[in-house]
Amino acid sequence: MYGLSIHVAMNRTILLAAVVAIIVVIGVVAVLVYRNETVVQKSTGSTYYPVTVRDASGRNVTLYTSPSRIVSLAPSDTQVLVSLGLGKELVGVDYYSYLLLKYLNATSDLPQNVTVFSPSISPNISGIVALRPSVVVDELGLIGDYSTQLSEAGLTTFYTNADYAGNYTAIEKSITTLGKLFDRNTQAVELVNWMNTRIHSYESQGDTGVAYLLWVNPDHTFYTAGSNTFINTILNLSGGVNVFSNTTGYPVLSPESLIVGNPQIIIAQELTNLSYTLYMINTMPGIANVSAYTNHRVYVMSQNLPTFLLDEPGPLSVYAIQMINLAIKGDAPSYISSAWVESELNVTLPVF
């Protein structure tokens, strides 16, 4: 019995030693795995940041961590951010950005609880601060003097300037800049390639004189797009020639300028409603002397999707080339509605 007890004791001792050894090995392996996982997490999640990128205002903006809460206050920027795969990171957008995505049935690209800021001349700074954004993205031409107030509120801001782009190259530069800021460089290249493919597919050669009436004032003066604007580039790529290419920016011109330009095609943005828009065009002094009017080649774009395509310097503007080209060829209705655009152009916002 004594010998058996010693044997059992020895076996227990050996077994205990083995168990301890196994526990030690498991512990060492666990520590190594934990350390390895920690290194992997660090290498995949934070090596890109901090990053410093110069924005359109000339400021160097630094993001120290990957931004998970973004506010976008311009439809052109929102288009880009959604296309770069950042839609779910948008905690706040302006009303017109949301409206555009609604026209495209693409609001599901945003969080369900996204905050939509009401239309206003000035940004809702207190509302933006309440969202605790990592960064606020906006068009420099839209934000104006309020940029200082945003900074004073402690918000990190990044400004683009595609609204004043003179061509698609400038729009694509804005896309790659945002791609750099948000660690979406590959997606930015894919988006630019997507745009260029469609530009080459839609572009057409021609010399049809086109007048774009961006807005008609009560006194019949009107806003248009000059030679150094992306809208001018769209008109040219559509097979048209901007009759106001002797101007720059977005000037206000007199009815006499329309008579002198004598366009073959007039494309007007809808003012409040179609009836009022047609009234303003029909009562414009000297309109009967304009070729486009006498030949019934006046096209009115509805305020929603068609206007967004032509007026917003984002990825979707490539569809405006096709839209204007169809008008030039006489294959578009006199009232270019959202329903017609959706059925004829199959407008979709890509997400990479």
Written description of the protein model:
This protein is of the alpha/beta class. It folds into 2 domains: about 50-200, Rossmann fold (3-Layer(aba) Sandwich), CATH 3.40.50.1980; about 205-345, Rossmann fold (3-Layer(aba) Sandwich), CATH 3.40.50. About 45% of the residues lie in helices and about 15% in strands. It has helices spanning about 1-45, 75-85, 95-105, 125-130, 140-145, 145-150, 170-180, 185-200, 230-235, 255-260, 275-280, 290-295, 305-310, 320-330, 340-345; strands at about 50-55, 60-65, 70, 90-95, 115, 135-140, 155-160, 210-215, 215, 220-225, 240, 250-255, 265-270, 300, 335. Residues about 1-45 have low confidence and may be disordered.
Q: What would a concise description of this structure say?
A:
The protein is of the alpha/beta class. The protein has helices at residues 2-45, 75-83, 95-103, 125-130, 140-143, 147-152, 168-181, 185-202, 230-237, 255-261, 274-282, 291-294, 305-311, 318-328, 338-345, and strands spanning 51-54, 60-63, 70-72, 90-94, 115-117, 135-139, 157-160, 208-213, 215-216, 222-223, 240-242, 252-253, 265-269, 298-301, 335-336.
Strand order across the largest sheet = 5-4-3-6-7
Helix percent band? 40-55%
Cα separation of the termini: 77 Å
CATH superfamily of the largest domain: Nitrogenase molybdenum iron protein domain
Number of domains: 2
Q: What CATH architecture of the largest domain do you see?
A: 3-Layer(aba) Sandwich
**Proportion of strand residues:** 15-25%
| CATH class term of the largest domain | Alpha Beta
CATH fold label of the largest domain: Rossmann fold
Anisotropy-based shape = globular
Number of helices: 15
Radius of gyration: 29 Å
- Provide the low-confidence segments as ranges: 1-45
- Helix/strand-derived category reads alpha/beta
**What order do the SSEs take from the amino end to the carboxyl end, as H and E?**
HEEEHEHEHEHHEHHEEEHEEHEHHEHHEH
Q: Kindly report the average pLDDT value.
A: 89
Largest sheet: 5 strands, parallel
Counted beta strands: 15
